[in-house]
Automatic annotation (TrEMBL):
The lineage of its organism: Eukaryota, Fungi, Dikarya, Ascomycota, Pezizomycotina. InterPro entries: Appressorial_penetr-assoc. Keywords: Signal. This is Uncharacterized protein. PANTHER family: CIRCUMSPOROZOITE PROTEIN (PTHR34587:SF1), VWFA DOMAIN-CONTAINING PROTEIN (PTHR34587). Residues 1-17 form the signal peptide. It comes from the Eukaryota.
């Protein structure tokens, strides 16, 4: 029996790192290295930031030893190329505070590596990775190999722990699963694999070939008690006196920005008002003794609030244009399409007319697709959307995911998106792992 993970991969898949080399797959008799394409692209994005061993591309780490040598750079043991690639990508992502990048590196280390025939397990790298998070992992094994089911389940559960530890969604571990077991008597070596170069999420997802190694409940149980030790970069994080009130935007209004019922013509004035409200609450708490440390800290916080959010708005104005569209942000609320639970939906239904979804990947993917087609947005805006999608899908699927998406897409969406990027003090990008596992929404469809 096999299962399909619906939607969770989609936003990650949009994180583009450019085309991957053709010659590797052309040289393989039974290739499958592009089956998890979005993971390769995530890793490639991180790898190119600093690549001292001159690894040619993330795809080579998933090839058999003979083919892997062609792109191994200074890595001398091809059986360690997958680990070396993941290790360097993780190092780079960690230095940048990039949680999706770290998640991608962890996932990449765990996906199956090609072998010469059905049922043949791949060699485990004997060297120890630099990062303990990578060192804790090994790759999935051919599902027809000895004890593969138990081995692969153990890999997924350990991966979930490592994902939770860096603040990513532990359920992403399920997406590193492999195919249903093939027949060891299959002389073609094809098994039940696929390998489609231009399938952005990866053909294992688009063709419903992914087999889950564990249940969501088992993932949740595995990560209980794990607290994230790494935080990502983000916008203003001050919370003295409470978070700044959100800035709502309405592109059709002559005074499009609203803070607690007060309307403003420009985003700068709205930011100032939002930060002032927080400052007043902070000062009141300090004056009444409810907040220790005196009022001076409130002044410092207000300066930081205005500076951080004004910078975000300024970045929005000079970044990529959205073409014919506006406000590509996402909201998370109850009562959508008759749902009894909170869900995600595009804020601008005129340009991004799509129903609600329980996972932000569906909405983010649609917005990014629309930006690249009917909106005719420029390359900068499309790249920002891809980055925003990857960040959102790696975050707990609640308001934090919407915040993560909006804070990045604000760099491409002009004033309306900039408003969304400043609506809260800081997205809860890093939750306890147990909370992350408990609150994430993931649609699983049983396939026969």
């Amino acid at each position: 029996m096999k299962y399909q993970v619906s939607s969770l991969f989609l936003a990650f898949a949009l994180a583009s790192a450019g085309p991957l080399p053709n010659r590797a797959i052309q040289a393989r008799e039974v290739p499958q290295e592009h089956s998890h394409e979005f993971i390769l692209k995530l890793v490639q994005n991180s790898l190119v930031l600093n690549n001292p061993k001159k690894i040619q591309d993330s795809v080579f780490g998933l090839l058999g030893s003979a083919a892997a040598k062609a792109g191994a750079g200074l890595v001398t043991n091809p059986d360690c190329l997958q680990q070396e690639t993941a290790d360097q990508a993780f190092t780079n992502a960690k230095a940048a505070g990039d949680i999706p990048g770290m998640a991608g590196a962890l996932m990449y280390r765990s996906i199956e590596r090609n072998t010469g025939k059905v049922g043949l397990a791949s060699v485990i790298c004997p060297d120890k990775a630099v990062n303990p998070e990578i060192a804790a992992l090994t790759q999935h094994q051919d599902p027809a190999s000895a004890n593969a089911a138990s081995i692969n389940k153990g890999i997924v559960l350990e991966l979930a722990k490592q994902l939770a530890a860096v603040g990513a969604d532990p359920l992403l571990a399920l997406e590193t699963g492999t195919f249903a077991p093939g027949s060891t008597s299959d002389n073609t070596g094809a098994g039940n694999t696929c390998d489609t170069l231009n399938d952005d999420p990866g053909c294992i997802f688009s063709k419903n070939l992914l087999v889950l190694d564990a249940t969501p409940a088992e993932i949740a149980a595995a990560v209980v008690g794990i607290t994230p030790t790494i935080t990502g970069t983000g916008k203003f994080t001050g919370t003295l006196g409470g978070a700044p009130p959100p800035i709502a935007s309405d592109g059709a209004s002559s005074r499009p920005f609203t803070v607690k019922g007060n309307t403003f013509v420009n985003i700068g004035a709205a930011i100032q008002r939002s930060c002032d409200v927080q400052h007043n609450a902070c000062a009141n708490a300090a004056n009444t003794g409810a907040l220790a440390g005196g009022q001076a800290q409130c002044e410092t916080q207000q300066t930081a609030c205005v500076a951080a959010n004004t910078a975000a708005a300024a970045k929005a104005k000079r970044a990529g244009a959205l073409g014919k569209c506006s406000n590509p942000t996402i909201v998370f609320k109850a009562g959508l399409d008759g749902r009894t639970t909170n869900a995600f939906i595009a804020a601008n239904q005129a340009d991004f007319n799509h129903g609600s979804a329980l996972n932000i990947a569906v909405i983010a993917g649609f917005i990014c697709q629309r930006l690249g087609s009917s909106c005719n947005a420029d390359a900068t805006a499309q790249a920002a959307c891809a980055k925003a999608s990857a960040a959102a899908v790696a975050t707990t699927q609640n308001q934090a995911a919407a915040d993560a998406f909006n804070s990045i897409i604000g760099a491409a969406g002009g004033a309306a998106a900039a408003a969304a990027a400043t609506t809260t003090a800081a997205p809860a990008a890093v939750q306890t792992a147990a909370a992350a596992a408990a609150s994430v929404v993931m649609t699983l469809t049983q396939c026969t």
